[in-house]
Each structure stands twice: as C-alpha cells, then as structure tokens.
Inverse folding.
C-alpha cells in the first residue's frame, strides 16, 4: 500500500488518514510510507512537510505515475478524475488488457472526460461515484490515485478506508493533497 506525500502531525488530515490506513483492525503487512526525499521539519515539531524544488514540482505527475508502478493488465482508478486527463495517461500505461477507470460525481466533468476520451481514442472509462462509496468490489483494484480531492470531503478518513477496501493485497494508493494547516501567505514585502 503506497501512501504518498502526507503531512503528518497530531490532529491534522495526514494523521487522520494514516490512522485509517494503520487501523488495528487492518492487516499492516505490506504498508510502505513514502515521503519526499526533500523533507524539512516545520516549527521544530512532529509535522513533516514535503518540500519540492520547482523542477521536481513540474515532474511530480510523472513521478506519481512511476511510483504507482502500473503496467499491462492492471486495474487502476483515479478518484475524482475531473475531465479525465490522468485516467487517459493511466490507460496508455496499462494497454488494452487493463482497465483505467475515473470516478467522478459531477455529470458535466464526466461528459467532458468521455468527449476527450473519444477524441483521443483512449480506452479510459469514467463512472459516477463518490470517494467514500467507490463502485468496486473488495480487493478488485491494483492501483488508485487521488489528487486534490480529500480536502473537499467532509469525511476524508472514510474515503481512504473505502479506497483501502477496494485495493487488492499489494495494491498501491497515491494520495496527493494540500494540508491547509501548514499553508502560509506572504505578500513579499517584509515592511
């Protein structure tokens, strides 16, 4: 199980998600926590904040796909796929023997995804669904990506528990989101 780029700290989103994945009722075998190689301690506390140089930030989507390690025949899901850009990229990696499925609750975004899929001749699919109620059987998915979705949910922990439910043993989960608790704003003028 792959968990990427979570900011960890007491009571924040990262801790809640980590707790969901490491619940005592879950089998902990095979849990692998990956963090950015460029880490910085924020405020001297227990929060770990990934720091990505500009070049790495530009390459992040490709790095995420590399870490998901999807290949021919895999069943992959993009939760909150929007217009389906990443679902189509995943479809290119898994070929005709796999399934690349985007889950999106907004009908307008699903329609746009289907239109783009048709234009490009992609094998990607888009289905109606919610992050906490994925329309898949238990242990039926090889890899899941979920980018900038959890921050919009009232219960992100339930969504992650549901993602873990549908992953096959040895499956990979990539979560990318913003920890707004560590966000700062500066207008650039120190005076």
């Amino acid at each position: 199980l792959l968990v990427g780029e979570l900011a960890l700290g007491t009571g924040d989103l990262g801790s809640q998600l980590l707790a969901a994945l490491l619940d005592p009722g879950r089998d902990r075998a095979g849990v692998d926590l990956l963090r950015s190689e460029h880490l910085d301690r924020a405020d001297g506390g227990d929060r770990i904040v990934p720091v990505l140089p500009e070049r790495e930030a530009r390459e992040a989507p490709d790095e995420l796909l590399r870490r998901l390690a999807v290949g021919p025949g895999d069943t992959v899901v993009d939760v909150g796929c929007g217009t389906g850009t990443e679902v189509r990229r995943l479809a290119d990696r898994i070929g005709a023997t796999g399934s690349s499925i985007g889950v999106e609750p907004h009908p307008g975004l699903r329609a746009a995804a289907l239109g783009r899929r048709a234009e490009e001749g992609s094998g990607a699919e888009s289905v109606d669904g919610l992050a906490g109620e994925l329309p898949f059987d238990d242990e039926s998915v090889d890899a899941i990506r979920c980018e900038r979705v959890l921050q919009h949910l009232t219960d992100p922990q339930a969504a992650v528990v549901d993602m873990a439910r549908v992953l096959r043993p040895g499956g990979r989960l990539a979560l990318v989101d913003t920890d707004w608790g560590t966000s700062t704003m500066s207008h650039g003028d120190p005076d």
About this structure: Residues 1-14, 24-53 have pLDDT under 50 and may be disordered. The longest strand covers residues 167-176. The two ends are 47 Å apart (CA to CA). The beta strands are 2-4, 32-34, 39-41, 48-50, 75-79, 99-103, 125-127, 141-147, 167-176.
